[in-house]
From TrEMBL:
This is 3-keto-alpha-glucoside-1,2-lyase/3-keto-2-hydroxy-glucal hydratase domain-containing protein. It comes from Crateriforma conspicua. The keyword Signal applies. Residues 55-241 form the 3-keto-alpha-glucoside-1,2-lyase/3-keto-2-hydroxy-glucal hydratase domain. It holds the Pfam family 3keto-disac_hyd. Keywords: Signal.
Length: 273
């Protein structure tokens, strides 16, 4: 059957509906009155795990020049191998996107918290757990992908020892006022091997082992740090993007444009529920 196209305007429930092949200068249009800055152009990597053009690369397999570490941390076969003490990034970040890949020791040794234990710390104080949680039981808020002692991951997406795990972490840093009072808490969204495990989780504070979490005022930016827990965990392909939301300014009140008529939302009489 020959398809017909109509350039008519249909009205339903008091709203103008424009056909796909036509338009009308008389159709109602909602305008929010915000003047937006043009979003920056970022070139993605060849694949999603590659750092995009605006990323800060913390480890690409060559050296540890972006980290404060002692000599026990090594680069072995293009991987960052844990040593004694923490590895602390030299660059510091606030709100950010973090990509990091890790692999538990193989063959697997130990059990519970003694198997492939490490951790990724945002701002050097808020930990998402690294652990060999493949067929390895432990307390749930201490398994891989947990915000340590605060929440388990929604699911256990850990790959077998020797295979690589990926964390993609989206971090909103906590905010404090000039007197050190908490204005807004930290939030984290995280994917483990492409699977959503934390969705805008609100942290209760830092993530210590021996006391309840709490917030202490700190700078708006802090380093990424990696934990040594006595297990030879490997890391690779670590990069971070600083994140700034789209910027705009409310230059006039929201309004409805209907042809040449502009009606402010506050006095339009339209149902805004």
């Amino acid at each position: 059957m020959k398809r017909r196209f109509f350039n008519s305007i249909l009205t339903f429930a008091g709203l103008a509906v424009i056909s796909a092949s036509g338009s009308s200068a008389n159709a109602k249009e909602y305008l929010n009155g915000i003047t937006w800055e043009e979003p920056a152009v970022v070139t993605p990597g060849v694949i999603n795990s590659d750092p995009p053009s605006d990323a800060v690369v913390l480890f690409s397999g060559d050296d540890l020049s972006q980290w404060k570490v002692n000599d026990s941390w090594k680069v072995v076969d293009g991987c960052m191998l844990t040593g004694k003490g923490k590895a602390v990034s030299i660059p510091k970040f606030g709100d950010c996107q973090l990509h990091i890949e890790w692999s538990a020791p193989t063959p697997a040794k130990g059990e519970g918290q003694g198997r492939g234990n490490s951790g990724v710390f945002l701002m050097d104080r808020y930990e998402i757990q690294v652990l060999d949680s493949y067929e390895n039981k432990t307390y749930f808020d201490g398994q891989a992908g947990a915000i340590y002692k605060q929440t388990p991951p929604a699911v256990n997406a850990t790959r077998p020892p020797g295979q690589w795990n990926t964390y993609d972490i989206f971090w909103t840093a906590p905010k404090f006022d000039e007197d050190g009072n908490l204005v807004s808490p930290a939030y984290i969204t995280a994917m483990h091997n492409g699977i959503l495990i934390l969705n805008h989780f609100e942290l209760k504070g830092d993530t210590p082992y021996n006391r309840p979490p709490k917030y202490n005022a700190h700078d708006s930016e802090g380093p990424i740090s990696l934990q040594d827990h006595g297990n030879p965990v490997r890391f690779r392909n670590i990069w971070v993007r600083e994140f700034t939301p789209a910027q705009g300014e409310q230059t006039r009140s929201p309004f409805i444009r209907d042809g040449k008529k502009e009606t402010p939302i506050e006095s339009s009489g339209d149902d805004q529920e």
